[in-house]
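From the pipeline queue, job 12 of 40. The input is one protein chain; the requested action is below.

Action: predict structure.
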Amino acid sequence: MTKVALIEFGTSHDEVLYPQYRFLEESAKHEVFLFVSEALKERLFDYPNHQVFFIPAQPKRSDLIDLHRRLRQMGIQKVVINTASGKTVRNFLWLRPKKPWKVCGVLHHLRKLEGSTTQKLISLYLKNYYFLAEYLQAKAPSLKPKLNYGQFYAGFLPDFPIDESYRKPLGETWVVVPGQLEYKRRDYQALLDSLKPNSLDPKLRFILLGKSKHSHGNGSEFEAELKNRQLEHFFLSWDNFVPNEAFYAYLAQADFVLPLIHLGQASGELYQKQISGSWNMALAFKVPMLIEAGSPGADEFEDGAYLYLKEELPGLWSKLDELKQRSYYLAPKWQFENQAQAYLDFLDKA
């Protein structure tokens, strides 16, 4: 069996670790171990203890030396770096010129290939990159043609028990917007402009699943807009981080996920080069998305979404009951077995 180490040095993307863990754990040809930052300890899913090792949140050179030593002692043959960018990854890879393992990595931002000196140094040792969407994988060879690119959808999570305090009331419709409330990341203004309180179903709820008040957040401005427009009844939001049990409970019961990525707005440009975490969450729970036609990734996710024109947003909210009756995620590419095979095939060729 091929021994594989999944490594995450950073403080995010833990939801991307889980599908990779399952792909490897359920394979008859691989044995998997996780090496994860201590900063993620409280957020990790329930992995077997003997498969999980923790790395200091800000690893020093001595910590990276220890990690190299442990990987060699364990007989690791393949390493997959879950966030394959940044100085810690560079330092880890450059610590020992000759390594007894092959390296792959997940690249979350296409722009890292465009001009990052750190990424150029990483790519001298890491030449096999996964992307989390086909449209990003398709763009990569024109930027760095000598590297190898694979792709998988990180749309798989464990089952979560739903606490009764988060149970959806009968008859409500939940439209979930995952992510921190930042105007530069999502077109909240278009959402607000599309809503007229007297024309909305009283049981419609927009659930903003992310911290709203932080250094880059726009929570206070958004709250003022809701009050001014008399829309408070239709929204649920959090000032601080959403507890994990609440985050996943609301997603699991959502009727729709709304990424709020629009062409001609800052979000449209941002997500030309990276995916929205909303897509991973929607895929994991097989919740249909509401996506602007022509926005980044829209064609790729069409089978799991309803595509709207931005000017049609005001009329969209009265169509939700009809859209609930449609079938979504029927394409074979969304199936676990197909994603696992694509992931493992690329890994085995590395």
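Job complete. Residues 61-74 form the longest helix (14 residues).
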